[in-house]
From TrEMBL:
It comes from the Bacteria. Pfam families: PNPOx_N (PF01243). Gene3D superfamilies: Electron Transport, Fmn-binding Protein, Chain A. InterPro entries: Pyridox_Oxase_N, Split_barrel_FMN-bd. Residues 168-263 form the Pyridoxamine 5'-phosphate oxidase N-terminal domain. This is Pyridoxamine 5'-phosphate oxidase N-terminal domain-containing protein. Signal peptide: none annotated.
Length: 293
């Protein structure tokens, strides 16, 4: 499978960055290098994105564990050890062989991130991913958090499900400095990171969010996926309390003087205290634009 499909090429050509995309795309491979394997084994958090085989809806889900719960077990293979929450929207996908999945490991301590996309294979203790694409991203728009601690007695609350944002969830979204965006295409799935100063995601109504698409690496993997298939999943984290907000719906890009993505909410899952991690306060990226600008 090539790095880019028709959707990404369409966006690259529209923006005029095909040459830059070809240059950046040379860094994408299937192999998991030693430095990438070492990075993965240090992470307590992995975000996975896929389409639920039973509903077709796309979700982004957080997976956590002691460092080493994600590790390379072959030149093109990563193993992930569970458990994850039984009510997670992607629980069925994690147990379905061959499901296309995208993952991102993001380390706020070093402002490094790595993406690995491939296909799932369930294992006795979790699942493995046979990699199709492995690559790193620059630290742009990634907030630095110096440290984290594990809150051993934290237990996830019952998920609150809905079809649009509550007022409290809208506040959660507008206060966020980071979210994760899962998207899919005919041959795979992907998860990307979006970051900015609080307020960079706008709640336009209980059923619609939008955000400015900041300049990035010119690959346009996410916007290319959305051009080919509008299904998408968003994940917001509270880096202090561990609460999560997962959204699924459709997204489309508006091209103009300001490139903007609009997301229509179809289903919501809010889980209080879902993750046992408590991170230190953020130092915002110097690359973040003023959200009011």
């Amino acid at each position: 499978m090539g790095v880019y499909h028709a959707g990404s090429r369409t966006v690259q050509d529209r923006v005029g960055v095909r040459e830059q995309a070809d240059h950046v795309g040379r860094s994408v491979g299937r192999g998991i290098r030693d430095v990438a394997a070492a990075f993965l084994e240090l992470q307590p958090l992995l975000v996975a994105g896929a389409a639920d085989p039973s509903t077709g809806r796309v979700w982004a889900s957080p997976l956590t564990g002691a460092p080493g719960f994600v590790r390379a077990t072959g030149p093109h293979r990563v193993s992930v050890t569970g458990p994850w929450l039984p009510a997670d929207p992607l629980a069925t996908a994690f147990a379905t062989p061959g499901t296309p999945v995208g993952t991102i490991a993001l380390d706020p301590r070093t402002r490094r991130r790595m993406r690995l996309n491939g296909r799932l294979g369930p294992t006795a203790r979790g699942f493995a991913i046979e990699a199709d694409q492995v690559f790193a991203n620059c630290p742009k728009y990634l907030q630095k958090r110096e440290s984290y601690e594990v809150v051993a007695d934290r237990r996830g609350g019952d998920p609150l499900r809905g079809t649009e944002l509550t007022p409290g969830q809208a506040e959660f979204v507008t206060a966020a400095d980071t979210f994760f965006l899962a998207s899919v295409h005919q041959d795979g799935a992907d998860v990307s990171h979006r970051g900015g100063n609080p307020g960079f995601v706008r709640v336009d109504s209980p059923g619609e969010l939008s955000w400015r698409d900041y300049p990035g690496n010119s690959m346009f993997l996410t916007l290319g996926n959305l051009a080919a298939d509008p299904r998408a999943g968003l994940l917001f984290l509270d880096w202090t309390t561990g609460s999560t907000l997962q959204l699924t719906g459709e997204a489309h890009t508006e091209f103009g003087p300001e490139r903007r993505v609009r997301f229509t909410v179809r289903e919501t899952v809010e889980t209080p205290s879902a993750l046992p991690l408590r991170w230190s306060a953020p130092e915002y990226s110097p690359a973040n634009p003023d959200p009011a600008g």
